[in-house]
Amino acid sequence: MQLSPSEFILNTDNSIYHLNLLPEDIAQTVITVGDPDRVPEVSKYFDHIEIKKGKREFHTHTGTLNGKRITVLSTGIGTDNIDIVLNELDALVNIDFSTRKIKSKLTTLDIIRIGTSGAIHADIPIDSFLMSEYAIGFDSLLQFYNSLHVQHPEIQEAFMAHTGWYNHKSTPYVVSYDKTLGSKLMSNNILLGFTATNVGFYGPQGRKLRLETQDNDLNGKLAAFRYNDLKITNLEMETSGIYGLAKLLGHRAVSMNCILANRSTGQFSKDPKASTEKLIQHTLEKITK
């Protein structure tokens, strides 16, 4: 079936609508970062950069490091942007741009998020690295897709019972990382965690400036939640969307978090740039080894 112009939108140069990329512009290994300014902080390690493109908050560099072709792409903040990025990345490799038809042979991407995050337990050190084994999404993104088969409803139900989750909020969904890709990125200094993906930075993460929050003990409830050996470890804003859509589309995804804040102790990293730099170096070393 041919996809209509209103569903599969291309620019005048035949590039995909938001990312402004052509199929040949991306590698099969894609690193995502939130901040567009972090893209060159990753690509500066490449031996050669062949592509530099940008549109809105979506900036892309593609190049090679130790003979491996890698794309680094900024997503901006939030799972609404992840919906754009994951669907358009998939389109770049799995839709024929000339016929507007889905390819018979599909390509699997390795998608690795390098991001920053805040821990909610005192025993998770500032400047440590955490790989998200699971993520729980408080947004509604995955509920717009036929996604029950990639969710973990037993964990979701236990979480809602524990927190007294309000009916007028979106139903949380739990998704997991790709274990095979995760094993390639793992080392002794990486913690495994259960990441909460929030729909905002302030109220949804329990921060109060001038507005009162609906549940003043939300972070306490998150920290107290247990399901077998699982406990929620950290807060950020993209991982659940990446994991959910990657699984639905047949890609492999892992989220690597640099812990810059500890909400339990009130601490913040004294040198966040240096810590994030070390996580970038670790990730590049592992994927090119």
From TrEMBL:
The chemistry this enzyme catalyses reads: uridine + phosphate = alpha-D-ribose 1-phosphate + uracil
- One Pfam family, short name: PNP_UDP_1
Entry EC number(s): 2.4.2.3
Domain Nucleoside phosphorylase residue range list: 30-268
Q: Which InterPro entries match?
A: Nucleoside_phosphorylase_d, Nucleoside_phosphorylase_sf
Matches recorded under PANTHER family: FI09636P-RELATED, URIDINE PHOSPHORYLASE
Q: What is this protein called?
A: Uridine phosphorylase
